[in-house]
Amino acid sequence: MQRLLITGISGGQGRLLTRRLAGTCEIVGVDRRTWDERPQGVEIHEVDLRSRHVDELFRRLRPDAVAHLGLVRHQFDAHLRHDVNVVGTKHLLECCAEYGVDRVVVMTSSYVYGALPENPFYMDEDTALNVSRHYPEIRDLAEVDALATGFLWRYPEIATAILRPVNTLGRSVHSSIGAYLKPDYVPTILGFDPLLQFIHEQDLTESIVSALESRVRGVFNIVGPGAVPLSVAVRETGSTAVPLPEPLAVFLLDRLFRYGLFPVPADAVDFVKYPCTIDGRRFQDASGFEPLLGLEDTLRSVRT
Q: Contact, 125 vs 283, CB < 8 A?
């Protein structure tokens, strides 16, 4: 790997990956925002993935590897977010095919499986993607995943890896679950205590590096050190769970999210009711990746 292009380089995960690989290869970033304190020699281009400027970048720079981390989440208009994520990813993948990229990593999420009462424990990569059934606001995640999977089979000569990580925690990454667990009092649903899985942001960075360096090809779940009930996760992060009847919790989350007072929308409530646990053995077998940080350190990173 000589020249790596990272989308979303100015975000938390993009910065971690850049610092991890700085000095080992030439790094070029694409983002809508800049990053003033980036490592020396890292080039950043403030462009929209949907724009024709991306074609020009690929034509001029000829990256041999791409890490696509530039998906936007809740803090965005829903229609614009869908357009940026889906259309932007489609355009990026077209550029990868046209300009001879050798390896591609696309990071989506384990959320693509959805949280349903009938979910089996530890779903593998062949499980249907059901997030759109109960959480249509993030259907773009499933569409991006489907686009990348189609690309994987259409271009067998390109080592394409689609990574579906569990809940990510850490001081750099701004995940929904991290924001949910951070307040002193965390609303939960009375009568429900699902198993949740977590991975530390540093371990997720290592999984991306493993995918790039090993040139694995396929769809892979990415898991951390284990699973704990939601009540334990809340306690270990230093918060206090406040179990509420579901109608009251949905009403409050809807109002609080609408006015910017809580980071998680009411539509996400199924993820704190039902399990969405995944099996990560396929990636571990293919790449040799193993998480280094335990659950205790991972959960405590919410407040460090």
A: no
According to the model, what pLDDT value does residue 75 have? 57
Distances from the Cα of 66 to the Cα of 163, 165, 202, angstroms: 13, 18, 19
| Dihedral Cα 151, 152, 157, 158, nearest 10 deg | 80
Encode burial over 273-300: b for 16+ CB neighbours within 10 A, e otherwise: bbbbbbbbebbbebbebebebebeebbb
Do 263 and 257 meet the contact criterion of CB atoms below 8 Å apart? yes
Please give the DSSP secondary-structure letter assigned to residue 74: S
**Chain segment 57-71, per-residue pLDDT in tens:** 999 999 999 999 988
Give the residue from 264, 180, 173 showing the smallest Cα distance to 224.
173
To which H or E segment does residue 297 belong? helix 295-300
Tokens 């790039």 sit on residue = 212
Beta-sheet strand order (sheet of 227-229): 167-169, 195-200, 227-229
What is the spatial distance between Cα 218 and Cα 172, in angstroms, rounded to a whole number? 27
CB 287 within 8 A of CB 211: yes
pTM: 0.94
